[in-house]
Design goal:
heterodimer, A: 374 residues, alpha/beta, nine-stranded mixed beta sheet, 15 helices, 9 strands, 36% helix, 12% strand, globular, B: 93 residues, alpha+beta, Arc Repressor Mutant, subunit A, three-stranded antiparallel beta sheet, two-stranded antiparallel ribbon, 3 helices
Chain lengths: 374, 93
């Protein structure tokens, strides 16, 4: 046995099935890899059925169908039915584009438990601008109403950034009107496309503080009827987030081509990750070098190694350390003990005043091909 | 708080939660969008009896019969029910 593998590895709790990178929208903060256009060879229905069965046998309970836009997969209903048969709690994470009342009903019959619809903003103009689609907003509204009508619990997800964070009150009004059970106000995390557009997306401190005040007012006003989850942007923290609750701890992502990852942005790391076409889920989770690369804390360097808080935040996010410092084993520079913390504060300083207007790089095939090797 | 729970109430599951036995956890769990609550032994014993037909009183009677040694069982069960109603896992008419 390899003695660097912790003796007791818990089974994954979450399986995130990224069924496809195809998507009708072009959000400039998409978490898909920049080079998605060159990633082909989607897993077959049978591959997904096996992945789900093996993950469930290990003890995984929550299953997210995501993408890209998962509705473009024609086998989605079949996968949902199998998820229910296996005992998963299934979550559909969708833009709502490509949906209709019949599809929502068919998914319900198949056993889908919950639908999360993403919005880009609370007004048609802004929503459609960020989505890169003229019809997205009216379609999303219609689908949110239909999802509630058919009795699903509904989560609405809004990714917040410099261009929409000032409308948090309108966003929450809209969500209450649509009778959302949960609203996720997810401040942009700077990976993938969002990292390329960071200067245009990073809000100022003042914007964030105002938004937080509004969020708290609405929490008081609405009580338990709508739960509001406000994901604080880590750039404005001085300690890093406990990313994915730890590497290879509870979270397993399987990408459209079968690459298995400990989080959905890890693909960019210079690590060889296992593919479900070559590995069983149990073996790749427990024994693949990729899933063991940052388990536990033996990989840590200073200042993490001797830090009294290391078991709390586990050194933060490996992808952020890699993107900003060039080495995934460094401390996440969000931490103010990191010698590279200035990389964060410099980028924050730029966000406090006027930001020079530059065109956003929208997530589409053309841009994927153009920016893949930059 | 448990005083507010009436024996005649018939607890029903909020359709937004799903109760399920999980072999890997060796416990009953409540599943909801993107999350899970692992129930302790007594919570599982209570909730798995809430079938939309039995009343609070009937659940208490069944559990009293199954665990005759347990003291204060009625108060404990009612306290759990109060929490379950408050957290909207259960509703009642």
């Amino acid at each position: 046995m390899n003695d660097t593998i912790p003796a007791e590895i818990k089974p994954p709790f979450w399986l995130l099935a990224e069924l496809t990178y195809r998507c009708p929208l072009q959000c400039p903060y998409c978490s898909n890899p920049i080079e998605f256009a060159s990633i082909k060879n989607e897993l077959t229905t049978d591959d997904w059925l096996r992945v789900m069965r093996e993950a469930r046998e290990m003890g995984a309970v929550q299953l997210g169908f995501s993408g890209g836009e998962p509705l473009v997969r024609e086998d989605l209903t079949e996968l949902v039915a199998e998820a229910r048969r296996l005992g998963f709690y299934s979550n559909l994470i969708t833009s709502g584009v490509g949906m209709n009342a019949d599809k929502i009903a068919a998914l319900k019959t198949a056993g889908l438990d919950h639908i999360q619809i993403s919005f880009q903003a609370s007004s048609a103009a802004l929503n459609n601008y960020f989505a890169g689609s003229d019809k997205a907003f009216s379609q999303k509204l219609a689908m949110a109403q239909e999802v509630k009508k058919q009795g699903y619990p509904m989560v609405l997800n809004f990714v917040l950034h410099r261009g929409n964070v000032d409308q948090v009150d309108q966003i929450l009004e809209l969500s209450a009107q649509l009778q959302a059970d949960y609203v996720e106000l997810a401040n942009t995390q700077y990976y993938g496309w969002a990292f390329h557009n960071r200067e245009q997306l990073l809000p100022s401190r003042e914007q964030l503080q105002k938004a937080e005040v509004l969020v708290n007012q609405y929490r008081e006003k609405l009580g338990d009827s709508m739960k509001i989850i406000f994901v604080v942007p880590d750039y404005y923290e001085t300690r890093p987030k406990r990313c994915m609750n730890g590497w290879g701890d509870i979270f397993l992502t399987v990408t459209p081509d079968g690459t298995a990852l400990p989080c959905h942005s890890a693909r960019q790391l210079p690590i060889e990750f296992p593919n479900v076409r070559d590995w069983s889920i149990a073996d790749l989770w427990r024994a693949s070098p990729g899933f063991n690369a940052f388990r536990g804390d033996t990989w840590m360097r200073e200042p993490c190694r001797s830090c009294p808080e290391k078991s709390r935040d586990l050194g933060g996010c490996r992808c952020q350390a890699f993107m900003l410092t060039g080495d995934a084993a460094n401390a996440d520079p969000v931490c103010d003990k990191s010698p590279q913390h200035h990389l964060i504060t410099e980028s924050l300083a730029k966000a406090q005043g006027e930001v020079a207007e530059q065109p956003l790089i929208f997530r589409n095939w053309q841009n994927s091909q153009r920016h893949s090797h930059t | 708080m448990s005083d507010s729970v009436n024996d005649d109430w018939i607890p029903r599951f909020n359709p937004h939660f799903r109760l399920q036995w999980e072999p890997a956890q060796d416990a009953y769990v409540l599943l909801y969008p993107e999350g899970m609550i692992k129930l302790n032994f007594s919570g599982g014993e209570i909730l798995c009896r809430c079938d939309g037909e039995k009343s609070v009183g009937q659940v208490i009677a069944e559990l009293r019969q199954k665990f005759p040694e347990t003291e204060n069982i009625e108060a404990d069960i009612k306290e759990f029910f109060a929490t379950a109603f408050q957290r909207r896992w259960l509703t009642h008419e």
